[in-house]
Specification:
alpha+beta, TATA-Binding Protein, five-stranded antiparallel β-sheet, globular
Length: 93
């Protein structure tokens, strides 16, 4: 599952805001590989299981790909939560 949110920020600013939002939500880094300036992966452990996603900030948009989620967690729910969270993180300050 992929989610794409458009923005009018520089890619580095979009990445900074995503990292700040991830920190505020207590997301864990989900890779042993070094995360680049404009991409990364995070994991959130919930009572239903872990959700893991990778992200990439580009000019004009941020793309998030859900890599793993509990089978019984509805994809639509995850997508809505991602869209809302990303829109909030990327909103003009």
């Amino acid at each position: 599952m992929e989610v794409r949110i458009d923005h009018d920020l520089e890619p580095a600013e979009a990445a900074r805001r995503l990292r700040r939002a991830a920190q505020e939500l207590d997301l864990e880094e989900a890779t042993d590989e070094p995360q680049g300036d404009l991409h990364g992966a995070f994991r959130k452990t919930t009572p239903m299981g872990a959700v893991k996603a990778s992200w990439k900030a580009e000019a004009g948009s941020v793309e998030v790909r859900v890599l793993d989620k509990p089978a019984f967690l509805p994809g639509g729910m995850v997508k809505n939560m991602l869209e809302e969270g990303l829109a909030k993180a990327l909103a003009k300050e």
